[in-house]
Amino acid sequence: MNKALNGVTILDFSHLLQGPFATQLLADMGANVIKIERAGSGDMFRSMTFFAKWVGGSESPNFLAWNRNKRSLALNLKSPEVHAIIMEMAKKADVVVQNFRPGVLAKLGYGYEDFKAVNPGIIYCSGSGYGEDGPYVTRPGQDMLIQGLSGLMANTGRGDQNPVPVGAGLADQIGAMNMVYGILSALYYREKTGIGQKIEVNLLAGLIAHLNQEYVGVLNLGEDFVRPNSGIGHPGMQAPFGVYETADGGYVTIAMSPFKTLYETLEAPALAVYDDLGTLFEKRDEVWEKVNAETKKFGTADLLDRLLAADIWCAEVKDIRKAAEDPQVTHLGLITSYEHPRAGTVRVVGPAIRMSETQPTIDRPAPLVGQHGREILAEFGISAETIARLEEGGDMTVSEA
């Protein structure tokens, strides 16, 4: 199948979420992603899971989520022979991706300058928590930590409770998108000039960039966000923007909508006394309580029908299982599956975009540790004798499907 990134080869040293999600997105687009893992244990995400359970009894849902469409080559990166082999591979590669702590790979001889020396056109994308220099360079850069440091967590949750991290690895996933954005831009630049480059992506910068409107508001308006005690959905917004209860135990979100339209639709004319922008902000907790009392008079489906008929911006709040069965999610084909040699049928979220000529697809399951090591090295001209020696010496792991 014709894909946008056919012919692009990526040496992917990344682990956990940020780098692997980025390279998965590129792999979905047809890039030849060679996942270079640690001999033996592989990517750290292989040993992490949710609910203390394993898909198919042995596989991590975390790893399965971010590593489809890749082949795995598991090597001992400290081995001089392995280093020489990877540098030979680099001569034919287009992109290197890694998200170890700053300096870790460079000490092993896999920094940007090492790859550039053998392939001046190489694009080297490096991900980190806080950047590759500065006072936090040695700190661990994990998603929840960045949510707290960036200001996002202080904006989330109710004012009379602790700040709340969002229920997904948002900083990592934004970091992944920035990696893709940088890599595609660098590929386009190299196509025009023949010049490769180093790309540095960090979680802190990425998440702060996505808080731009919040930073612009605070730094220019002389106000600080204060989380409301009610279900108002953003600390800078007035009522009714928020989450509301329904009669059958459900929840509905109501976004930016004319307040007059809302209270008329709810048949609650007494709410008219709040219909002023300043009042809706200053008394937003009180307004939320009043509106919530009205929404609780309706079942979830009835309330949604009523609000949507009045063109009020609203939606049901769903958990993961219900969202996966949502009719629009089904229509878009967002939930799909692949067959894994050990986990069996794995249900996953498919590519999020549609392309008329080069549609991204899922062609391979997430690999086993080193599953494709022999075929990858053979493709790069490494002899069968060398491959056998690497295996026998413990410098390469090959897991059979």
Automatic annotation (TrEMBL):
Keywords: Transferase. Pfam families: CoA_transf_3 (PF02515). InterPro entries: CoA-transferase_III_domain, CoA-Trfase_fam_III, CoA-Trfase_III_dom3_sf, CoA-Trfase_III_dom_1_sf. SUPFAM superfamilies: CoA-transferase family III (CaiB/BaiF). GO terms for molecular function: CoA-transferase activity. This is CoA transferase. It comes from Arsenicitalea aurantiaca.
